Amino acid sequence: MKEQSVIVQLESGLHARPASEFVSAAQRFSSKISLQVGDKTVDGKSILGILSLAVAKGTQVVVQADGQDEEEAVRALTSILASAQ
């Protein structure tokens, strides 16, 4: 398992559109993807799970991946969260 912590830089946080983009990117990987905020962990391939976290800009999240492409998955997904778009 590979995991990395990142501070969300998305201007409006992880709301509907960025959450959808995150899930679309996560679904390209065969690894199991999770997103953790505090003590709550959700399936990174579930739009409802991600929206339930109510992640705002400046929130620290942990991206976890477990599988054959885990390193590439964590790298790609953390870069989405760390971008300011």
Automatic annotation (TrEMBL):
Question: Out of the domains of life, which is the source?
Answer: Bacteria
Compartments where located: Cytoplasm
Which stretches make up the HPr domain?
1-85
Query: Is the keyword rRNA-binding assigned to this protein?
Result: no
Print the keywords alphabetically. Cytoplasm, Phosphotransferase system, Sugar transport, Transport
- By its UniProt entry, which Gene3D superfamilies does this protein fall under? HPr-like (3.30.1340.10)
Tagged with keyword Membrane: no
The record's GO CC annotations read: cytoplasm
User: Where mainly found?
Assistant: cytoplasm
Q: Which SUPFAM superfamilies match?
A: HPr-like (SSF55594)
The protein's matches in InterPro entries, at most eight in alphabetical order, are given as: HPr (IPR050399), HPr-like (IPR000032), HPr-like_sf (IPR035895), PTS_HPr_His_P_site (IPR001020), PTS_HPr_Ser_P_site (IPR002114)
Q: Which GO terms describe its biological process?
A: phosphoenolpyruvate-dependent sugar phosphotransferase system
Role this protein plays: General (non sugar-specific) component of the phosphoenolpyruvate-dependent sugar phosphotransferase system (sugar PTS). This major carbohydrate active-transport system catalyzes the phosphorylation of incoming sugar substrates concomitantly with their translocation across the cell membrane. The phosphoryl group from phosphoenolpyruvate (PEP) is transferred to the phosphoryl carrier protein HPr by enzyme I. Phospho-HPr then transfers it to the PTS EIIA domain.
Protein name per the record: Phosphocarrier protein HPr
Q: Which organism is it from?
A: Alicyclobacillus sacchari
What lineage does UniProt assign to this protein's organism? Bacteria, Bacillati, Bacillota, Bacilli, Bacillales
